[in-house]
Amino acid sequence: MEIWINPACSKCRSAVQLLDAEGADYTVRRYLEDVPSEDEIRQVLDRLGLEPWDITRTQEAEAKELGVKEWARDASARDQWIKALAEHPKLIQRPIITADDGTAVVGRTDEAVRDALSR
Q1: Which PROSITE patterns does the entry link to?
Q2: Which of 18, 21, 52, 56 is positioned for an S-S bond with 81, CB 3.0–4.6 A?
Q3: Which CATH number belongs to the domain containing residue 22 in this structure?
Q4: Is 12 a catalytic residue?
Q5: Which of 9, 32, 50, 77 is catalytic?
Q6: Per the domain annotation, does 99 fall within a domain?
């Protein structure tokens, strides 16, 4: 199990605390420092069952500068979104937990973190 976090994020800190409280075996990835590649983002999206626009923090200043709210949300624009996430990792929703069964969740709630633990 791996969790992608930004240590400054309260949701990330809460998720880590819950994982610790449950005695989970996991690896922390500080994704702003250890930036995921486009391929890694694709893999996580597949595991999440989501599209890149589903995990993009569209309210971030960088997102507004890029104009992502205006981008198409379909197969033709998928690579554009993934490239933006790789080049601007701050736009990636967090925390993302990759579960041992090959799936992943966006662990913004205790329920989502527990869901990842149960997989």
Answers
A1: ARSC (PS51353)
A2: 52
A3: 3.40.30.10
A4: no
A5: 9
A6: yes
